[in-house]
Request: fold
Amino acid sequence: MRYLGLWLDPQLRLHEHTKITASKASRATKALRMLGNSTSGMNQLCLRQIYLGAVLPIATYGSIAFWDGKSSAIKKTLEHAQNKALRFITGAFKTTPIPALEIKVSIPPINITLNYYTKRYATHTQKLDPSNPVMCHIPEQHRENIPIQVAPPLPCFPPPPRNRVSAYLIRQHKVKAKKTMITRLIHMAKHITPDTERINPHVEPPWHRSKHDPDTQEQIRLYILVNNPGMSVKEEWAEDHTNLYDEYKNDNDFMFIYTDGSLSYYKGVHRTGYGVAIYRNDTEIASEKGPMGEHVKAYDTEMKALEVTSRLIHKIVNNMDTPPLKIILATDNMGSVNGIKWVLHPDMI
Reply:
């Protein structure tokens, strides 16, 4: 059965998986012969780089799931595929010792590479959320006091009844249970370095503003129109905005900006466009408009208007001797306004 690129067998040893990946890597190595050989074509440095970047990941795919650090069958299978690549890259004879080829092209033995991948994944676990299933199945002694939300059920291997089997079989069962407990995940967990700094990938992104940011305190306010079913407040908001504009239209500290997008059909042609107008001291100081094409949606025209607005604001503020202290932006793009609302802290709305 194949699941997430891994070929699973009934014993979950993944020997068949390594045979398949090694065969794919060998075919990829043969395909590299089109790029050159020992006398012409691509040099050894480029062939080595292609092998490390394209062929080796094929052979070692899912190594964290099948490599336990000592499986000779898996090591032998993958070594056979890598040895073919080493001979092709160097152009050496089949009788050349493999350790010499590994030194020549600076490619470590496959078991060292697999151990490196295991240790790298162990380091990567320090970026996983404590509720991640991988973290939940790592033994406590390797989690460094990292709390987990729900402890997973541990595997249970009850011994057989003593009155039915001999003591020898009971001892054999205990030894087998002990070996079964050493899973690939526990093998990886042993490589977790103690006191490693943990990185939480779900911390607040830098573009999420907070009420504690000094550059946004008392500087950004959003006024979102709230519509009730069967009741429109557009006329009320329009009247309030008109009164606001009449009150501050001659104030040099205020700048009013209006954006809009349009979508219309004229003689069977789909027309879209955007427009921006900026006023200060009751005078239009900047404006811009333009078409967007027939395959553009209305939302995109609104977003284009806001993008042009940000560029014009930056230009005006940097070029004016006395830039405005307050900028009032009026737009009917509720989607973008709600996006800004999601970025800002609730206390800033």
